[in-house]
Hints:
With 442 residues, this protein is α+β, with helices and mostly antiparallel strands. It is 31% helix and 24% strand.
Amino acid sequence: MGTATAGQHSRATAWHNWAGNVTATPARVVTPATVGELQEAVRRAAEDGLKVKAVGTGHSFTAAAATDGVLVRPQALAGIREIDRTAGTVTVAAGTVLKDLNVALAREGLSLTNMGDIMEQTVSGATSTGTHGTGRDSASIAAQIRGLELVTADGRLLSCSEKENPDVFAAARIGIGALGIVTAITLAVEPVFFLTAREEPMGFDRVTAEFEQHFAENEHFEFYWFPHTGNCNTKRNNRSQGPAAPPGAVSAWVEDELLSNGVFQAVNSLGRAVPAAIPSIARIASRALSARSYTDIPYKVFTSPRRVRFVEMEYALPRERVVEALRELKSMVARSGLRISFPVEVRTAPADDIALSTASGRETAYIAVHMYKGTPYQAYFTAAERIFTAHGGRPHWGKVHTRDAEYFAGVYPRFGEFTALRDRLDPDRLFGNDYLRRVLGE
Protein backbone atom coordinates (compact mmCIF):
# COMPACT_ATOMS: atom_id res chain seq x y z
CA MET A 1 0.00 0.00 0.00
CA GLY A 2 2.99 2.31 0.34
CA THR A 3 3.43 5.00 2.94
CA ALA A 4 0.95 7.78 3.51
CA THR A 5 1.99 11.27 2.47
CA ALA A 6 1.56 14.38 4.59
CA GLY A 7 -2.02 15.13 5.52
CA GLN A 8 -3.02 11.57 4.67
CA HIS A 9 -3.24 8.28 6.46
CA SER A 10 -3.54 4.82 5.12
CA ARG A 11 -5.33 1.92 6.74
CA ALA A 12 -8.06 -0.47 5.76
CA THR A 13 -10.95 0.18 8.13
CA ALA A 14 -14.61 -0.38 7.42
CA TRP A 15 -16.69 2.72 6.65
CA HIS A 16 -20.45 2.94 7.19
CA ASN A 17 -22.99 5.65 6.50
CA TRP A 18 -25.09 7.57 9.06
CA ALA A 19 -28.06 5.20 8.82
CA GLY A 20 -25.83 2.12 9.05
CA ASN A 21 -27.38 0.52 5.95
CA VAL A 22 -24.23 0.88 3.77
CA THR A 23 -20.73 -0.36 4.65
CA ALA A 24 -17.51 -0.53 2.66
CA THR A 25 -13.89 -1.52 3.30
CA PRO A 26 -11.56 0.70 1.26
CA ALA A 27 -7.99 -0.36 0.47
CA ARG A 28 -6.85 2.96 1.88
CA VAL A 29 -8.27 6.16 3.30
CA VAL A 30 -6.76 9.56 2.50
CA THR A 31 -7.40 12.89 4.20
CA PRO A 32 -5.79 15.49 1.94
CA ALA A 33 -4.99 18.80 3.59
CA THR A 34 -4.53 20.63 0.28
CA VAL A 35 -5.93 20.43 -3.24
CA GLY A 36 -2.44 19.41 -4.40
CA GLU A 37 -2.48 16.43 -2.04
CA LEU A 38 -5.90 15.45 -3.37
CA GLN A 39 -4.65 15.63 -6.96
CA GLU A 40 -1.68 13.45 -5.98
CA ALA A 41 -3.99 10.92 -4.28
CA VAL A 42 -6.14 10.71 -7.44
CA ARG A 43 -3.09 10.22 -9.69
CA ARG A 44 -1.65 7.59 -7.38
CA ALA A 45 -4.93 5.66 -7.21
CA ALA A 46 -5.03 5.56 -11.02
CA GLU A 47 -1.44 4.25 -11.11
CA ASP A 48 -2.31 1.55 -8.55
CA GLY A 49 -5.44 0.52 -10.47
CA LEU A 50 -7.75 1.57 -7.60
CA LYS A 51 -11.08 3.38 -7.81
CA VAL A 52 -11.49 6.67 -5.91
CA LYS A 53 -14.54 7.98 -4.03
CA ALA A 54 -14.94 11.07 -1.86
CA VAL A 55 -17.22 10.73 1.14
CA GLY A 56 -18.79 13.52 3.20
CA THR A 57 -20.56 12.80 6.47
CA GLY A 58 -22.34 9.71 5.15
CA HIS A 59 -25.86 11.14 5.22
CA SER A 60 -26.78 9.42 1.95
CA PHE A 61 -28.77 6.20 2.23
CA THR A 62 -27.37 4.87 -1.05
CA ALA A 63 -23.92 3.42 -1.74
CA ALA A 64 -22.98 6.48 -3.85
CA ALA A 65 -19.70 6.93 -1.91
CA ALA A 66 -18.88 3.27 -1.19
CA THR A 67 -15.58 1.91 -2.55
CA ASP A 68 -13.07 -0.87 -2.04
CA GLY A 69 -10.41 1.44 -3.51
CA VAL A 70 -9.30 4.82 -2.17
CA LEU A 71 -11.74 6.63 0.11
CA VAL A 72 -11.12 10.38 0.20
CA ARG A 73 -12.27 12.27 3.30
CA PRO A 74 -12.38 15.98 2.39
CA GLN A 75 -12.99 17.23 5.95
CA ALA A 76 -9.54 18.90 6.11
CA LEU A 77 -10.46 20.89 2.97
CA ALA A 78 -12.81 23.17 4.88
CA GLY A 79 -13.59 26.79 5.51
CA ILE A 80 -14.54 29.94 3.64
CA ARG A 81 -12.04 30.96 0.96
CA GLU A 82 -13.61 34.21 -0.14
CA ILE A 83 -16.68 36.39 0.30
CA ASP A 84 -17.49 38.65 -2.65
CA ARG A 85 -20.14 41.08 -1.45
CA THR A 86 -20.36 42.81 -4.82
CA ALA A 87 -21.11 39.58 -6.68
CA GLY A 88 -23.16 38.23 -3.74
CA THR A 89 -21.15 35.00 -3.48
CA VAL A 90 -19.16 32.93 -1.01
CA THR A 91 -16.50 30.41 -2.05
CA VAL A 92 -16.00 27.50 0.33
CA ALA A 93 -13.78 24.44 0.38
CA ALA A 94 -15.73 21.27 -0.41
CA GLY A 95 -15.39 19.59 3.00
CA THR A 96 -17.01 22.50 4.86
CA VAL A 97 -19.98 21.32 6.94
CA LEU A 98 -23.18 23.24 6.17
CA LYS A 99 -23.69 24.05 9.84
CA ASP A 100 -20.27 25.74 10.02
CA LEU A 101 -20.97 27.61 6.79
CA ASN A 102 -24.35 28.87 8.05
CA VAL A 103 -22.89 30.09 11.35
CA ALA A 104 -19.95 31.79 9.58
CA LEU A 105 -22.23 33.47 7.04
CA ALA A 106 -24.56 34.74 9.78
CA ARG A 107 -21.54 36.33 11.51
CA GLU A 108 -20.87 38.16 8.23
CA GLY A 109 -24.51 39.26 7.96
CA LEU A 110 -25.16 36.85 5.06
CA SER A 111 -27.33 33.83 4.34
CA LEU A 112 -28.11 31.19 1.76
CA THR A 113 -31.54 31.73 0.19
CA ASN A 114 -32.83 28.22 0.87
CA MET A 115 -31.69 25.10 2.71
CA GLY A 116 -32.62 21.52 3.48
CA ASP A 117 -33.86 20.53 6.94
CA ILE A 118 -30.54 19.26 8.30
CA MET A 119 -27.10 20.85 8.11
CA GLU A 120 -24.73 18.08 9.22
CA GLN A 121 -23.58 17.33 5.65
CA THR A 122 -20.54 18.68 3.84
CA VAL A 123 -21.29 21.30 1.18
CA SER A 124 -20.02 19.04 -1.60
CA GLY A 125 -21.88 15.96 -0.34
CA ALA A 126 -25.16 17.85 -0.03
CA THR A 127 -24.93 19.48 -3.46
CA SER A 128 -23.62 16.42 -5.32
CA THR A 129 -26.71 14.41 -4.34
CA GLY A 130 -29.24 17.20 -4.91
CA THR A 131 -30.12 17.99 -1.28
CA HIS A 132 -33.03 20.45 -1.12
CA GLY A 133 -35.50 22.11 1.18
CA THR A 134 -38.85 23.42 0.07
CA GLY A 135 -39.50 26.56 -1.96
CA ARG A 136 -41.89 28.18 -4.39
CA ASP A 137 -39.22 30.37 -6.00
CA SER A 138 -35.91 29.20 -4.48
CA ALA A 139 -34.49 25.80 -5.32
CA SER A 140 -31.99 23.20 -4.06
CA ILE A 141 -28.59 24.08 -2.64
CA ALA A 142 -26.99 22.96 -5.93
CA ALA A 143 -29.14 25.44 -7.86
CA GLN A 144 -27.54 28.21 -5.77
CA ILE A 145 -24.04 27.25 -7.05
CA ARG A 146 -22.32 29.90 -9.18
CA GLY A 147 -19.02 28.10 -9.71
CA LEU A 148 -17.07 25.02 -8.68
CA GLU A 149 -13.66 23.37 -8.88
CA LEU A 150 -13.28 19.73 -9.78
CA VAL A 151 -10.30 17.34 -9.76
CA THR A 152 -10.78 15.14 -12.82
CA ALA A 153 -9.60 11.58 -13.49
CA ASP A 154 -6.30 12.79 -15.01
CA GLY A 155 -5.51 14.80 -11.87
CA ARG A 156 -6.27 18.21 -13.42
CA LEU A 157 -8.11 20.94 -11.51
CA LEU A 158 -11.03 22.19 -13.61
CA SER A 159 -12.82 25.49 -12.85
CA CYS A 160 -16.46 25.55 -13.93
CA SER A 161 -19.11 28.26 -14.13
CA GLU A 162 -21.61 29.59 -16.67
CA LYS A 163 -18.65 31.26 -18.44
CA GLU A 164 -15.88 28.68 -17.86
CA ASN A 165 -16.45 25.05 -18.97
CA PRO A 166 -20.23 25.69 -19.03
CA ASP A 167 -20.98 22.15 -20.26
CA VAL A 168 -19.32 20.70 -17.14
CA PHE A 169 -21.00 23.31 -14.92
CA ALA A 170 -24.42 22.31 -16.30
CA ALA A 171 -23.89 18.78 -15.00
CA ALA A 172 -21.32 18.84 -12.19
CA ARG A 173 -23.45 20.84 -9.75
CA ILE A 174 -25.25 17.53 -9.12
CA GLY A 175 -22.62 15.03 -10.23
CA ILE A 176 -23.21 12.13 -7.76
CA GLY A 177 -19.43 11.83 -7.59
CA ALA A 178 -19.28 10.52 -11.16
CA LEU A 179 -17.40 13.36 -12.86
CA GLY A 180 -14.58 14.01 -10.41
CA ILE A 181 -13.94 15.22 -6.87
CA VAL A 182 -15.27 18.67 -6.04
CA THR A 183 -12.72 20.78 -4.14
CA ALA A 184 -14.47 24.15 -3.86
CA ILE A 185 -17.91 25.59 -4.44
CA THR A 186 -19.02 29.19 -5.00
CA LEU A 187 -22.57 29.77 -3.74
CA ALA A 188 -24.91 32.73 -4.16
CA VAL A 189 -25.59 34.49 -0.85
CA GLU A 190 -27.68 37.46 0.19
CA PRO A 191 -27.87 39.80 3.19
CA VAL A 192 -29.26 37.90 6.16
CA PHE A 193 -33.03 38.15 6.56
CA PHE A 194 -35.76 36.97 8.90
CA LEU A 195 -38.24 34.17 8.30
CA THR A 196 -41.47 33.77 10.20
CA ALA A 197 -42.54 30.15 10.48
CA ARG A 198 -46.15 29.24 11.07
CA GLU A 199 -46.83 25.63 11.99
CA GLU A 200 -50.41 24.48 12.06
CA PRO A 201 -52.13 21.09 12.29
CA MET A 202 -54.52 20.46 9.40
CA GLY A 203 -56.62 17.53 8.21
CA PHE A 204 -55.29 15.43 5.31
CA ASP A 205 -58.33 16.11 3.13
CA ARG A 206 -58.09 19.86 3.64
CA VAL A 207 -54.34 20.18 3.06
CA THR A 208 -54.47 18.08 -0.12
CA ALA A 209 -57.52 19.96 -1.44
CA GLU A 210 -55.82 23.31 -0.76
CA PHE A 211 -52.27 22.26 -1.68
CA GLU A 212 -51.89 24.52 -4.73
CA GLN A 213 -53.26 27.49 -2.80
CA HIS A 214 -50.80 26.97 0.09
CA PHE A 215 -47.98 26.56 -2.42
CA ALA A 216 -48.90 29.79 -4.25
CA GLU A 217 -49.34 31.88 -1.10
CA ASN A 218 -46.11 30.94 0.71
CA GLU A 219 -42.42 31.22 -0.12
CA HIS A 220 -41.74 27.90 1.60
CA PHE A 221 -44.58 25.47 2.24
CA GLU A 222 -44.31 21.88 3.46
CA PHE A 223 -46.41 19.41 5.36
CA TYR A 224 -46.16 16.09 7.14
CA TRP A 225 -48.86 13.42 7.05
CA PHE A 226 -49.01 10.91 9.90
CA PRO A 227 -49.80 7.46 8.45
CA HIS A 228 -52.78 5.63 10.03
CA THR A 229 -54.41 9.03 10.68
CA GLY A 230 -56.15 11.79 8.77
CA ASN A 231 -53.84 14.32 10.43
CA CYS A 232 -51.09 16.53 9.03
CA ASN A 233 -48.81 19.26 10.31
CA THR A 234 -48.20 22.17 7.93
CA LYS A 235 -45.28 24.59 7.97
CA ARG A 236 -45.16 27.94 6.14
CA ASN A 237 -41.97 30.01 6.12
CA ASN A 238 -42.15 33.56 4.79
CA ARG A 239 -39.82 36.56 4.94
CA SER A 240 -40.63 39.12 7.59
CA GLN A 241 -39.26 42.31 9.11
CA GLY A 242 -38.29 40.56 12.34
CA PRO A 243 -37.20 40.96 15.09
CA ALA A 244 -36.11 37.45 16.06
CA ALA A 245 -38.68 35.69 18.25
CA PRO A 246 -37.50 32.08 18.54
CA PRO A 247 -39.89 29.35 19.66
CA GLY A 248 -40.67 29.19 23.37
CA ALA A 249 -39.21 26.41 25.51
CA VAL A 250 -42.35 24.25 25.48
CA SER A 251 -43.00 24.41 21.74
CA ALA A 252 -39.27 23.89 21.05
CA TRP A 253 -39.40 20.76 23.22
CA VAL A 254 -42.48 19.48 21.39
CA GLU A 255 -40.81 19.98 17.99
CA ASP A 256 -37.28 18.90 18.90
CA GLU A 257 -37.97 16.05 21.32
CA LEU A 258 -41.51 14.76 20.74
CA LEU A 259 -41.41 14.95 16.94
CA SER A 260 -37.71 14.67 16.12
CA ASN A 261 -35.51 13.22 18.84
CA GLY A 262 -35.74 11.90 22.42
CA VAL A 263 -39.41 11.05 22.86
CA PHE A 264 -39.70 10.24 19.15
CA GLN A 265 -36.83 7.74 19.58
CA ALA A 266 -38.66 6.04 22.47
CA VAL A 267 -41.92 5.95 20.51
CA ASN A 268 -40.17 4.39 17.50
CA SER A 269 -38.42 1.82 19.68
CA LEU A 270 -41.79 0.86 21.15
CA GLY A 271 -43.26 0.67 17.64
CA ARG A 272 -40.41 -1.57 16.50
CA ALA A 273 -41.04 -3.91 19.46
CA VAL A 274 -44.86 -3.79 19.22
CA PRO A 275 -45.87 -2.83 15.64
CA ALA A 276 -49.57 -3.20 16.49
CA ALA A 277 -49.28 -0.15 18.77
CA ILE A 278 -48.12 2.17 15.97
CA PRO A 279 -51.56 3.39 14.71
CA SER A 280 -52.61 4.36 18.26
CA ILE A 281 -49.27 6.11 18.88
CA ALA A 282 -49.63 7.98 15.56
CA ARG A 283 -53.09 9.23 16.50
CA ILE A 284 -51.88 10.48 19.90
CA ALA A 285 -48.69 12.06 18.50
CA SER A 286 -50.45 13.83 15.63
CA ARG A 287 -53.09 15.21 18.00
CA ALA A 288 -50.42 16.53 20.39
CA LEU A 289 -49.54 19.21 17.84
CA SER A 290 -50.74 22.77 18.23
CA ALA A 291 -50.27 25.84 16.07
CA ARG A 292 -47.22 27.98 16.78
CA SER A 293 -45.39 30.85 15.16
CA TYR A 294 -41.78 32.03 15.53
CA THR A 295 -39.26 34.24 13.73
CA ASP A 296 -35.52 33.82 13.27
CA ILE A 297 -32.69 33.98 10.75
CA PRO A 298 -33.03 31.43 7.91
CA TYR A 299 -30.87 28.49 8.97
CA LYS A 300 -32.49 28.44 12.42
CA VAL A 301 -35.92 28.17 10.80
CA PHE A 302 -35.09 25.84 7.90
CA THR A 303 -33.05 23.28 9.85
CA SER A 304 -33.52 21.20 12.98
CA PRO A 305 -31.45 18.52 14.74
CA ARG A 306 -32.19 14.91 13.77
CA ARG A 307 -30.84 12.35 16.23
CA VAL A 308 -33.27 9.52 15.52
CA ARG A 309 -31.71 7.23 12.87
CA PHE A 310 -33.90 6.20 9.97
CA VAL A 311 -33.84 5.00 6.37
CA GLU A 312 -35.49 7.17 3.73
CA MET A 313 -36.83 7.07 0.18
CA GLU A 314 -37.81 10.30 -1.56
CA TYR A 315 -39.23 10.83 -5.04
CA ALA A 316 -39.60 14.04 -7.04
CA LEU A 317 -42.87 14.17 -8.99
CA PRO A 318 -44.30 16.74 -11.39
CA ARG A 319 -45.99 19.10 -8.92
CA GLU A 320 -49.43 18.61 -10.46
CA ARG A 321 -49.22 14.87 -9.68
CA VAL A 322 -48.24 15.01 -6.02
CA VAL A 323 -51.69 15.13 -4.40
CA GLU A 324 -52.94 12.18 -6.44
CA ALA A 325 -49.81 10.18 -5.57
CA LEU A 326 -50.12 11.01 -1.86
CA ARG A 327 -53.78 9.92 -1.81
CA GLU A 328 -52.74 6.65 -3.45
CA LEU A 329 -50.03 6.21 -0.80
CA LYS A 330 -52.57 6.77 1.98
CA SER A 331 -54.96 4.20 0.47
CA MET A 332 -52.11 1.70 0.04
CA VAL A 333 -51.07 2.02 3.71
CA ALA A 334 -54.70 1.61 4.85
CA ARG A 335 -55.09 -1.60 2.79
CA SER A 336 -51.70 -3.08 3.49
CA GLY A 337 -51.29 -4.11 7.10
CA LEU A 338 -48.03 -2.07 7.15
CA ARG A 339 -47.27 -0.19 10.37
CA ILE A 340 -45.56 3.16 9.68
CA SER A 341 -44.29 5.20 12.66
CA PHE A 342 -42.62 8.04 10.71
CA PRO A 343 -44.54 10.95 9.13
CA VAL A 344 -44.51 11.34 5.33
CA GLU A 345 -42.97 14.65 4.22
CA VAL A 346 -44.14 16.74 1.23
CA ARG A 347 -42.04 19.63 -0.15
CA THR A 348 -41.69 21.58 -3.42
CA ALA A 349 -39.05 23.07 -5.74
CA PRO A 350 -39.16 25.26 -8.86
CA ALA A 351 -37.77 23.92 -12.13
CA ASP A 352 -34.00 24.31 -12.53
CA ASP A 353 -31.43 23.84 -15.33
CA ILE A 354 -29.10 21.17 -13.85
CA ALA A 355 -28.89 18.00 -15.99
CA LEU A 356 -29.57 15.43 -13.24
CA SER A 357 -31.42 17.62 -10.75
CA THR A 358 -34.64 16.00 -9.56
CA ALA A 359 -36.28 19.33 -10.51
CA SER A 360 -34.52 19.56 -13.89
CA GLY A 361 -36.87 21.22 -16.36
CA ARG A 362 -40.05 20.78 -14.34
CA GLU A 363 -41.99 22.26 -11.43
CA THR A 364 -41.56 19.66 -8.72
CA ALA A 365 -43.01 18.31 -5.50
CA TYR A 366 -41.36 15.70 -3.30
CA ILE A 367 -42.78 12.87 -1.22
CA ALA A 368 -40.41 11.38 1.35
CA VAL A 369 -41.15 8.15 3.22
CA HIS A 370 -39.09 7.03 6.22
CA MET A 371 -38.72 3.94 8.41
CA TYR A 372 -37.03 3.73 11.79
CA LYS A 373 -33.52 2.24 11.63
CA GLY A 374 -33.61 -1.51 12.15
CA THR A 375 -37.22 -2.03 11.04
CA PRO A 376 -37.88 -3.86 7.76
CA TYR A 377 -38.56 -1.12 5.23
CA GLN A 378 -38.57 -3.05 1.93
CA ALA A 379 -42.32 -3.81 1.71
CA TYR A 380 -43.32 -0.19 2.39
CA PHE A 381 -40.69 1.32 0.12
CA THR A 382 -41.44 -1.11 -2.72
CA ALA A 383 -45.16 -0.29 -2.61
CA ALA A 384 -44.44 3.46 -2.38
CA GLU A 385 -41.94 3.31 -5.23
CA ARG A 386 -44.51 1.60 -7.45
CA ILE A 387 -46.83 4.59 -6.92
CA PHE A 388 -44.08 7.19 -7.44
CA THR A 389 -42.71 5.66 -10.64
CA ALA A 390 -46.22 5.42 -12.12
CA HIS A 391 -46.25 9.25 -11.89
CA GLY A 392 -42.88 9.67 -13.63
CA GLY A 393 -41.03 10.15 -10.33
CA ARG A 394 -37.29 10.77 -10.04
CA PRO A 395 -35.66 9.37 -6.89
CA HIS A 396 -33.33 11.49 -4.77
CA TRP A 397 -29.76 10.42 -5.62
CA GLY A 398 -28.82 9.96 -1.98
CA LYS A 399 -31.90 8.05 -0.81
CA VAL A 400 -33.05 4.45 -1.13
CA HIS A 401 -34.43 3.45 -4.54
CA THR A 402 -34.22 0.54 -7.00
CA ARG A 403 -34.10 2.44 -10.32
CA ASP A 404 -31.43 1.95 -13.00
CA ALA A 405 -29.93 3.75 -16.01
CA GLU A 406 -32.67 2.57 -18.34
CA TYR A 407 -35.33 4.12 -16.11
CA PHE A 408 -33.39 7.37 -15.71
CA ALA A 409 -32.93 7.74 -19.47
CA GLY A 410 -36.74 7.86 -19.63
CA VAL A 411 -37.36 10.42 -16.87
CA TYR A 412 -34.37 12.75 -17.44
CA PRO A 413 -34.41 14.42 -20.88
CA ARG A 414 -30.72 15.38 -20.39
CA PHE A 415 -29.54 11.98 -19.12
CA GLY A 416 -27.53 11.34 -22.30
CA GLU A 417 -25.82 14.71 -21.96
CA PHE A 418 -24.59 13.72 -18.50
CA THR A 419 -23.36 10.25 -19.48
CA ALA A 420 -21.56 11.64 -22.54
CA LEU A 421 -19.76 14.15 -20.33
CA ARG A 422 -18.82 11.35 -17.95
CA ASP A 423 -17.40 9.34 -20.86
CA ARG A 424 -15.24 12.34 -21.72
CA LEU A 425 -14.08 13.24 -18.18
CA ASP A 426 -13.74 9.73 -16.74
CA PRO A 427 -13.47 7.21 -19.59
CA ASP A 428 -11.81 4.57 -17.37
CA ARG A 429 -14.36 5.01 -14.53
CA LEU A 430 -11.77 5.95 -11.92
CA PHE A 431 -14.65 7.43 -9.92
CA GLY A 432 -16.99 4.51 -10.59
CA ASN A 433 -18.60 2.06 -8.18
CA ASP A 434 -21.52 -0.39 -8.16
CA TYR A 435 -24.11 2.30 -7.45
CA LEU A 436 -22.98 4.49 -10.37
CA ARG A 437 -22.85 1.45 -12.64
CA ARG A 438 -26.50 0.79 -11.84
CA VAL A 439 -27.79 4.37 -12.14
CA LEU A 440 -25.63 5.62 -15.03
CA GLY A 441 -24.93 2.42 -16.94
CA GLU A 442 -21.58 0.90 -17.93
